[in-house]
Amino acid sequence: MVDLTKNYFELFELPVSCQVDQQQLSSQYRALQRAVHPDRFAGDGERQQRLSVQYASHVNEAFNTLKQPLKRAIYLLKIAGRDVDMERNTIMDPQFLMEQMALREALSDIRSHANPEQELERLVDRVDHDLDTYLKQFEGFWEAGEELDLDQAETVVRKMQFMVKLAAELEQLESELLDG
Fold it and tell me: What's the topology of domain 94-179?
């Protein structure tokens, strides 16, 4: 069965790293899913079936965390004893906040733009570029591993959280524009 005391990287037999071999992750995920799938324990006792559901849920959560760069970065910080709590720590670089306000304004103006699809694409490209940049910054700070670097890594993760939320809103707007 699944050892719930292992961290997600250990569970999937991956090195603790910012970069994850997506093929190995997917392969290990399928193997773990087969091993813990509740259908395999349909004839067993109720306790074993409940454990199987718990194990399957744990495997799914671990997979989704390691698959997505932002969730993986937050998890890496958690392993290092850091808690990236946006509710608790709202201090943010004023320049970044100004950029966020400008991006939010651009998002709200897309519908009234002469060519909304083109403007949307431009904004999506900008957000994707910024996310890539933040991910590289995080990797550098994480790999350095010093206390001050981990502080910087936390700050970068908070910025990534803003950008991921904006990317989701852009995706929603794109869907609305295509439907409407």
Answer: Monooxygenase (1.20.1280)
Q: What pLDDT band is residue 99 in, cutting at 50, 70 and 90?
A: very high
pLDDT for 1 equals: 65
CATH 1.10.287.110 spans which residues of the chain? 8-67
pLDDT at 89: 64
What value does the mean pLDDT take over residues 21-32? 96
Q: Is the pTM of this model over 0.70?
A: yes
Structure tokens at 79: 């392993």
Q: Which fold has domain 8-67?
A: Helix Hairpins (1.10.287)
How far is residue 41's CA from residue 30's CA, in Å, rounded to a whole number? 17
Residue range 167-172: mean pLDDT, rounded: 96
